[in-house]
Amino acid sequence: MSEISFVRPDPNDFLDIDALLSEEEVLLRDTVRNFVEKEITPHVGEWWEEGHIPTADLAKAFGELGMLGMHLEGYGCAGTSATAYGLACMELEAGDSGIRSFVSVQGSLAMFPIWKFGSEEQKQEWLPRMATGEIIGCFGLTEADSGSDPASMRTNARRDGSDWVLNGSKMWITNGSVADVAIVWARTDEGIRGFIVPTDTPGFSAPEIKKKASLRASVTSELILDNVRLPADAVLPGVASMRGPLSCLNEARFGIAFGAMGAARSCYETALEYSKERVQFNKPIGSFQLTQAKLVEMMVAVQKGTLLALHLGRRKDAGTLTPEQISFGKFDNVRHALEVARTARSILGANGITLEYPVFRHMANLETVYTYEGTNEIHTLVIGQSLTGLDAFA
Fold this sequence. Notes:
Elements lengths: L22 H28 L4 H10 L17 H14 L1 H21 L2 H13 L4 E4 L15 E5 L2 E12 L6 E8 L2 E8 L5 E2 L14 E11 L12 H35 L1 E2 L2 E2 L4 H30 L4 H26 L10 H11 L6 H13 L6
Parallel strand pairs: 1-4
Antiparallel strand pairs: 2-3, 3-7, 4-5, 6-7, 8-9
């Protein structure tokens, strides 16, 4: 019979989840963590307040670290495991959701469709430069009137001789105003097709969306396509249905399941340290029962969510992960991350609303993460349909 260890658990890794990671995974995770602590955390509060990020500099830095399209094979991509990609997303979002969104959009939404559905010529032309950060991409699916129902999109593409002509608009597009290339999904007579659209093509414009109260350290734009003429080889040949964009969204949602726990962990660790330093009634507020109860709930949520994300990563690497399980991860981890952020804000009191601490910034960002890549309600219905076999969307 084995003995029970009486060593005090690490408050920041209570279940010793690090023991489940390989040495290579820990090294990659720590490399990204160190980068975030050195290059992101000291500046991101100011970026968030001013509503901008140094996109070109970050793209180059991420490219040098091999983080752009890191889970893809070949074409200059790092070819890491899905779990390693998830761990990187966790560390990036511990810095800021907008920073993780930049990397996620580049790799999972812009590079992945070219890698998965593109021709060999398209892959050779675009992916190596996107992997280095020389070229920034965006993903045009959501429209002002078709968010949760992307199949109702109005953006269309018609053949004109050997060319394609695109008309329509997209909304809430991360990286749109700074992108060099957009992957735009449009309705055609052949089904839903994806198009590689260089953003300097005549008729294409991407005005930035301002006055955001969330994801401020991220570029969000509208895409306008006014008789955008493209050559025949601009279309992705490998798919002509909603399977194309939805498979891309599943790649991004997988990263969010990890990323949300990074934001939650940052909030929990901030609140824990604050509770030991903030003195009221002649003792640290961490000694009060109500504060300890909040800390315990936050820690448990972070540890369980991290275990869930890691489990999904292992299943993805094994080729056994289903879209419904990805919905499970996005649904549960984001809602718990948002609750952790709100609880941490309460522990910090008035200090919780300042940008001197990351908590309110994470809380505001997570309100967007709760909605994008499928709202909480949509993922609830995806899981419900899986349980019952009955379609709640019809």
